[in-house]
Structure formats: C-alpha cells, structure tokens
Design brief:
The protein is mainly alpha-helical. The chain has helices at about 5-15, 20-35, 40-55, 65-95, 115-130, 130-160, 165-170, 190-205, 210-220. Helix 3 runs antiparallel to helix 6 (about 130-160), helix 4 packs antiparallel against helix 8 and helix 5 (about 115-130) packs parallel to helix 9. The radius of gyration is 22 Å and the shape is elongated.
Length: about 230
C-alpha cells in the first residue's frame, strides 16, 4: 500500500497533530508582513539624507548648458515611464493578485512592473536632483529590495500558485521588459479602490520634477551655501 502526501493534506494533518503549528505559520506570516511594512522606511532613511546633502552641494552641470537640457529631458522621460508602469500595473492587477496569477498586460513583460515603475521614478529623481550620491544610494536600496522584499514576494507566489508560477518566472524576466512577449485580452476589470490608492501614492512622487527645478534654481544662486562640495 502506497501513501501519497500532497502539500495541502500535509499542512492539514500537521495542524491537527500539533496545536501550535498554526501559531508558527502565523508568526512566519507576521515576520514577512513586518519586512514588507519596513521596506519603504529603509529607502527613505537612505535617500532623503542624500537628497538634502545634494541640496547644499554645487550643481553637476551648469543650468545654462545643453548638457543640462539633455539631462532634464532624460529625467522627464524616465519619470513618465515609471509613472506609466505604476498606473498600468495597478489597472491590470485589479485586486486579483490574491486570487489568480496575473500574467498579462505589464505582467507579461516583467514580473514586477510596480517595482520597475518605482525604480524608474527613483532614477528620475536622481536625474532631476543631479545627484550622484542619490543615484548610488538608490542602487543600494534596489539591491535591498531584490534580495529581501522581492524574493519574499516570489516565495509567497510560488507557494500559492506552485508550478504555474515556476513556468511564469521561467519565461518572464523580473525587471527587463521584452515587448515581444506582450499579450493581453481586449477587456479587463478594474479595481477602482486600488486605482484611487495608487493615485494617493502618486501624491508622494508627483512633485519630484518641481522639486528638481527648485534644486536647480537654488544651487545656481551665488548666495546659496555649497557646504558639501564632494557630495553631488
């Protein structure tokens, strides 16, 4: 006689035999939740000081040069691309990520379009601020996200969807989009609450271009203190 144990059955019997098994699982889930909750705090703790230090350092490029115009154009293009990915992904996710594996629209290009959008907006902020220190610390924050938060998210999705997620991860890259893989149906359902939530989050970064313009104006003034000449 052969006994075949399926993962779901094994978890059920484990919980029945050991009353504290569910407690251990809830502790693990709580630890994961804390990691997600603190992900924004890590980025803010690194990037906000870098932005403030850059404010009191000389500009990298003279504001009246063609290089400055080129850099500002690149900043706007990166910023709009990041905003586009964030809103596009929110429209497609539509509150479905807890119920099904979303692999269409932006999720057919990359596995984490929301994070890609945030990364592009962060890169745009460094370009608007003309700060090498900001861009360097942004890379550090991105590595923290990839090795911590994103890996945890992928483990959760893999445990939830099993082989379907493994196949999805094998054909769709994490961050580098391939437009040839784009596929989507003609009609989708939109979660209006999720869209409003993304609009509320956008209020945190929609001011980045205006802040960058203010930085440029202040740093170019002869009366503005340039305290940190080695930090740009």
């Amino acid at each position: 006689m052969r006994f075949i144990w399926h993962p779901q059955e094994l978890r059920t019997h484990w919980a029945a035999l050991w009353p504290w098994a569910s407690t251990l699982e809830s502790v693990g889930s709580a630890a994961q939740h804390r990691r997600f909750r603190w992900r924004g705090g890590v980025g803010a703790a690194l990037l906000i000081p870098a932005a403030l230090l850059s404010l009191f350092s000389p500009p990298l490029i003279p504001p009246d040069s063609w290089w400055h115009l080129w850099l500002r154009g690149l900043a706007w293009a990166t910023f709009l691309a990041g905003a586009f990915f964030r809103f596009w992904a929110t429209l497609w996710l539509g509150g479905r990520k807890e119920k099904e594996l979303v692999d269409q629209g932006p999720y057919s290009l990359v596995r984490h379009p929301l994070y890609l959008g945030s990364l592009l907006i962060g890169l745009a902020a460094g370009l608007f601020l003309e700060s090498l220190a900001f861009e360097f610390l942004l890379v550090v924050v991105a590595l923290v996200y990839v090795t911590g938060t994103i890996r945890v998210e992928e483990d959760v999705l893999r445990s939830r969807f099993g082989e379907a997620y493994d196949q999805y991860a094998a054909r769709v890259p994490r961050f580098w989009p391939f437009t040839s893989r784009l596929h989507s149906p003609k009609h989708i359902s939109v979660d209006v609450d999720a869209l409003w939530l993304e609009c509320a989050r956008a209020s945190r970064w929609v001011w980045i271009p205006a802040i960058g313009a203010t930085y440029t104006f202040l740093r170019d003034q002869p009366w503005w203190p340039h305290v940190f000449r080695l930090i740009r």
